[in-house]
Batch of 4 targets.
Target 1
Amino acid sequence: MESVIDLLQFSPFIGIAGFIFALATYFWVAKQPAGNEKMTNIASMIESGSMTFLKKEYTILVGFLIIVAILLAVGLGKLTAVCYIAGAIISMLCGFIGMKAATKANVRTTEAAAKDGQGGALLVAFFGGSVMGMTVASLGLIGVATAYLLLKGDATAVSAINGFAMGASSIALFARVGGGIYTKAADVGADLVGKVEAG
């Protein structure tokens, strides 16, 4: 039992190490060649549109989070509500980092494909995608382990950690739905532009 507790105390540091790796990977991707001026201009517009959408979505979701947090505080206690908000904030941070990494990787993958072929493109795309994966796993581990250790691992802690998971899942759910709508709108827009240019 004591060895399990020692491992739990070490867990946040594993999460921190994973997050540092994710940041290092992000900066590696960002350093890759982004192509010519036309490519960088298009990439800049895509990044600007994506970040504007994400900020607007998060602004709307804040109201929802506050309402749910109040209901949780009344029904399950303040600790659960606090963990819910913490989970939501971490999920938002993951989404922000993931969006930045994806928009950086897109144009760099294209440039790598043109210069280095399929292998180079795969490398940039793989590391660009791994930023989000490592960020989610690392920050999730940091959040859950920290909450468990701060609450001393009693029955209240287990209930509160459920709130953390619910907060993270709430943001992920709405981000997925909203992101799907956004990307579909971009797809339809590109299709219309193509048809107009084709006459």
Target 2
Amino acid sequence: MAALSEIYAPELTELRRVRVDDLDAVLNEEELAWRDRLSWDFRPSADLVRRFVGVQALSGFALVAGGRVIGYSYFVTEDHKGLVGDLYILRDFATVELEYQLLEAVLDRMMSSPFLHRVESQLMMLHSPLEADLPHASFAGCYPRNFMVADLGAVGKFPVGKARQNIVLEPWSERFQEDAARVIASAYQGHIDSEINDQYRSVQGARRFLVNIVQYPGCGSFFQPASFVAQQQGSGQTAGICLSSLVSPEVGHITQVCVMPGSKGSGAGYELVRSSLLALAEHGCHSASLTVTSANREAVKLYERMGFVTKRNFSAFVWEGF
């Protein structure tokens, strides 16, 4: 039997014209895809999509074939920048061409705004790797990334790091937010990750990043007991941070780890990650994940030494100069 997308040429329609019920099949399958491929509970994010679609407040497009919604993509804007929040097409209908069609539609809409000069995306559920011939390729940059996972069964055997004699680990609290923003802006100055996320380039942007991490479910549910701030012995200066979340009841995620330039190579990053993994294991998590830019070889090697293995490759994309 021919696929529905072969019988009826899929058409784009505004998300604001789509009923929540019509999107359910796509969101339900996407929830299963995140669970099966990444051990990630996508339901909180899917529920946000449902809520905003229900009040016609989500910008983006749906793909409709034969009166059935088979895919969607949405975007949000912030100051001068747009973000492709998600893109998913039902497995039975997903093709490179349809993914391009959806992505191009949201890009065209954002690029038509005179106020937007940059678009970012990190789409982990694409059925086809978009590494060449991207929509608006002349404005695009591609940054391969790794989704890495570690079994926490042996984390208790990790030795205490050499940096522990020079730093004190404090549990995360809001009083560290300003220090953490300064650490992020300093740590990523000239770093490849600041090309992917321009919030890393300033203290003001890092503040917004921290608010998003703590308040919204895009990187899981923020988990304060496994989030730490490293401070220098004696001076009390903040040397680094490690923030964690829960992406399902038994799976943790390292959402952010970075250290001040003067602390790089000291072992502070290892000790921060080790402490977060220990706390996640004590909470009952059997595994933890993180994402890292493939070109950041030192970080990749550190995570591999700590038992992380790459389970999925994806790309971050940035369009600017349009």
Target 3
Amino acid sequence: MNITTQATDSHTLITVNETRIDASIAPEFKREMDEIIAASKSPMIVDISQISFMDSSSLGALVGIYKAVKQQDAFIIAGASGGVEELFKLTRMDSVFHMEKTVEDAKQSFLSVA
């Protein structure tokens, strides 16, 4: 699992550097994300733009992650496209998560709230 983080004064950018997240790596994905969340107290942007395939287990992992950070100020998923974006729409998770088209849009969203 390849996830990178970049902390700034206003947020933490979490970039998922994988093309697929499915049942075989969803538990590892959630575990690594939980560690990042525990270490970060700032609003988070999760960049999933490199992911071209997700299944229901990976979506379940994201829901678990969302529940863990719900008390924090913000959690934005950025960069969903193609089949990944369709998965969020079909499951109506696009109405649960705060989603933005790009990381830049997510950053602007934080600025408009501040």
Target 4
Amino acid sequence: MTQPLTPTETRPDGKALGILRAAFEVFARYGVRRTSMQDIAREAGMSRAALYLHFRNKDDIVQSLARHYYDQARADVRAALAAHPDPAAALDAAFAAQGGEGARLILTSPHGAELLDAKQSHCAEIVAEGEAALAAIYAAWLDRLAGEGRVTLDAAEGDTRAVAETMLVALHGLKAGAPDYDSYRASAARLARLFGQGLRPR
């Protein structure tokens, strides 16, 4: 049975979390490249010197944002999958939870493509670890449902990890190609229904 991975969690303290939220707002407004540490400090309501007590530089902030995103996504996806007995409804809730508020900000920002690129280019190792952990959570959920006879994995030869990774790749593809947030959510809900119906025992 697939077990969820548990990467090292680095929960930011209250002040650091406030800085990260402020930074993400500024990144969405101006883009990562144009944003300065002074811009982030101003948004967070502190001096630049105080900001440097928490983060070394802008790359440190971007990487900390990625870590925090995956910490939150793991918890939210687990909760969403556990809350719904119907597989399609569980996947719809999990896909929505996985994107979180960040997906809305990215897909409503004129700098959305840059924000997605920054996550990949500045945080490749964090992204790889986070995506692996999410795939393991979905796979463990599928293992449990298959054991209860609530889903069938015949089409995937019982490979729950492959199904989970396919879900995640498809979800990311929808986000990258979505013209706006509402379109993305509609497509993600459709994807959840397709997987839910495909997994249903005949």
